[in-house]
Amino acid sequence: MATPFQRLQAIDALRGLVMLIMMVDHVRETFYLHHQVPDPMLIPGTDEPLFFSRMIAHLCAPVFVLLTGLSAYLYQHKHNSIQMTREFLIKRGLFLVFLELIVINFAWTAQFPPDVVYLQVIWAIGFSMIALSAVIGLPKKWLWLLSLVIIFGHNLLDTVSFADIPMMHQLWLILHERGWIEFGEVIRFRTSYPVLPWIGVIILGYCIGTSVFGDSTSVRKRNRTLLTFGMVSIALFVVLRLANIYGDQAWLMMPTLSETFMSFMNLTKYPPSLLFILWNVGIGLVLLVMLQKIETKSWIKPLVVIGSVPMFFYIVHLYVLKLLYVFAVQQFGMTHGEYFGVNDVSTLWFIAIALSILLYPLMRAFAKFKHGNKHITILKYL
């Protein structure tokens, strides 16, 4: 029978893996802005290394939100209290929203007070945690239904607009449509991560926890069920994508096989389409099973360490990237129009790997401090 610690190892390892992948994408958003890509990407003119680097990074947000829901169930299971779990979700959700608005937004814009606030992934996770807190008391079957209705049905809302109803329009921008919420000339909010689909994903993670991580579930049975969920999700993606009818923009036959494959895998992240969620959640669950099988290996420990302090890693790496960019501009000036940037994608990977190695000792020290001072409440949120 699996212990909670054993479960946490694989979950933290997966969280650590996606944090490192995220590092590559954030290096891209720092040192490759002269080759910025839209969402979804434009296949003609987008180099393959850039496309596939961005495609791999798509794994990060869905897996992190899914694991947040799964971890919420494990917290509830550990404390045997829905009320304690609800309170924890609300407190941490509000804390994450605060971090997004103040700490993280400053890392991107270097403006305080800001005139633009970007509501990105940490905001979406925090908002989703608060939403999850409101529904965790529902029967399991209703939670499954709610999650699947949101995930499979939200693309039906893509053509809905409330542009002529200001109050509804602002709410809709938060829930489902990427856009700008403006308060005169004082401040603007960019809803980069509309939250409705992410609420579906976090509830899905919680539901998977209730179905798979019970006391009576053996490691073998749990892994078999997780693998089944993952493969079914991937299979649904393939079937629906081949049908080319619903779940994302249509893919096209392109001049080359490589470009056709890129078109097939060119999925919408903002907000995440049905097919985006199916593919990335499926891959994430398969990776979780694979990591479960090797979680006791010593070489997997760095992933576990980073995954145990995800918010600390997230904040630190953003500020390090900002400082590196400022330093690079001072030393070399603007090398690509209005930006300093590197010349190829391989350099982005090199920078990301180097920074990950350099930051690891700090992550390990903080993880040791965090786990040795569990009485400090704020550390639970980092």
From TrEMBL:
Domain of life of the organism encoding this protein: Bacteria
Keyword Membrane part of the UniProt annotation: yes
Coiled coil: none
Residues passing through the membrane, by range: 51-74, 94-111, 117-136, 143-163, 195-214, 226-247, 270-291, 303-328, 348-367
Family annotation (InterPro entries): HGSNAT_cat
UniProt entry tagged with the keyword Transmembrane helix: yes
Keywords noted in UniProt: Membrane, Transmembrane, Transmembrane helix
Domain Heparan-alpha-glucosaminide N-acetyltransferase catalytic: 7-215
Protein name: Heparan-alpha-glucosaminide N-acetyltransferase catalytic domain-containing protein
